[in-house]
Amino acid sequence: MAEWFTEQLAIVPGMRAQIEVTKKLASERSQFQKLEVYETTSLGRMLVLDDVIQCTEFDEQSYHEMICQVPLFAHPNPQKVLIIGGGDGGSVRECLKHKSVQEVHLCEIDKRVVDLCLEHIPSMAGKVTDPRVHCHYEDGAAWAKNHPDTYDIIIVDSSDPIGPAEVLFQFPFYESCRNALKSDGILATQAENFLLHAKIIKELLSFGKKLFPISRYYYTQVPTYPGGMIGFTFFSRKHAHDELVDKRFAESGIKAEEFRFWSVDFHKKAFTLPGATMRDFYS
Amino acid sequence: MAEWFTEQLAIVPGMRAQIEVTKKLASERSQFQKLEVYETTSLGRMLVLDDVIQCTEFDEQSYHEMICQVPLFAHPNPQKVLIIGGGDGGSVRECLKHKSVQEVHLCEIDKRVVDLCLEHIPSMAGKVTDPRVHCHYEDGAAWAKNHPDTYDIIIVDSSDPIGPAEVLFQFPFYESCRNALKSDGILATQAENFLLHAKIIKELLSFGKKLFPISRYYYTQVPTYPGGMIGFTFFSRKHAHDELVDKRFAESGIKAEEFRFWSVDFHKKAFTLPGATMRDFYS
After folding, report:
1. How far, in Å, CA of B238 to CA of B74, rounded?
2. Is B157 a catalytic residue?
3. Is the pTM value of this prediction over 0.90?
4. Out of A67, A194, B58, B207, which could bridge B174 as a Cys pair, Cβ 3.0 to 4.6 Å?
5. How far is A227 from chain B (nearest CA, A)?
6. Complex ipTM, two decimals?
7. What is the pLDDT of residues B234-263, one digit of tens each?
8. How is domain A3-56 classified at the architecture level of CATH?
């Protein structure tokens, strides 16, 4: 029997999404949050944390490819990656596509997210058991603070700035991340929707401007997220997003077909926002 | 008292949007369809036809600027424009921003759409009474067929291919539009979401390839549409979308601030789709 899951979007007043679901595969409350996995009518399996849709099999590739491949292809030689959050495993899968990557440290505060996704959504989470992956079930902010000058790439694959992820949208965390990066490191973070959350994004960009020579915002389409898209900050200690991407892709040995969304062209264009948003964010 | 308007999306199974509304400003049934106008909590006023959201004051600029400004700035000297559908007036407003445009013919089958929007959403519809605008309350497909070699630009600002707009998604209509264009004319049409309706879009592109030397698809963000975006076909008899845009904007006398979404860069970027979609649509 199908019924409708209704998302309660605390950060978008007056709009909400409904997804038709056929079966509740898991439902529990961990030390940190409420976790649910559903089978849906037309979007594959779906992970929900504290009543907010985190990902569906239908469109998670867009989010995970774009949060990971943009910093990975912008960096000259990414070897050591830190993922903060990301317990669903989609970002781990993307990082492992690069042969240069020797270690992926997954720092997820809630082990139950990893366990549930491994059990119910292996298309996304299955690579978490790869030998190049090291799981740390710890506070990501503390981890970043305690590992200076360690990573080539840091990916902050977090939920919204309400609940356990709130600290990941504050200045001290960005400072720790900058310090945890090597001198040519790149930080990419989940950074909401530029039409619905411009105020949050401008605050993140102001943190970036204080800490990094390159501080930009980019975005991609995710139909099941509020407003149908999601954006990311791109904070880089040395290289611009489009400086190395052609050469890096050509030399990577990765085929274009390994990505559903990411491409060299889509990478470059993801940084072009509508006219008024460009003026608002950058002038 | 606020309540939730639930969209029933016939063309997207398993997903639907809910918008919080505070007042129903109009509700009637015309000869062609059911029409409703609502006041919403956070999106301004909203037009709904046959239970499908057509536009809100919050994000209609994205749709109307991009369906109109892309062909207008791609054309060397647009003077005579035909809008098929578009009774909400948003496309009329966009076309009139160009001093070169001498006549806008609005061919909307349902006069009640125009009347209701003029009354309740003047921010969008107010320019319909401009002396350069000629309203024809007639069948757009027949109008295009009966006016060969007449227009510089045709904009098909239609609802979805279910109900009165069904004929606007079929080959004979595209043939009529090609013939109604002058030899350097451009046709832009509402063409759905590339992640949810790839099959419809590929059929439209196959029509375009038979009729036009240039046949492309582009898109923009519209948070209140299914999946948060909408795309358009760009079918041109002579000029590519990016051939003249820099020069045309520089010479137009229009300020960047007159647009919330359209810009020269956003115009160019709108044609770059995710990797798999580019391969699917163009190879």
Report:
1. 10
2. yes
3. yes
4. B207
5. 4
6. 0.95
7. 999 999 999 999 999 999 999 999 999 999
8. Roll (2.30)
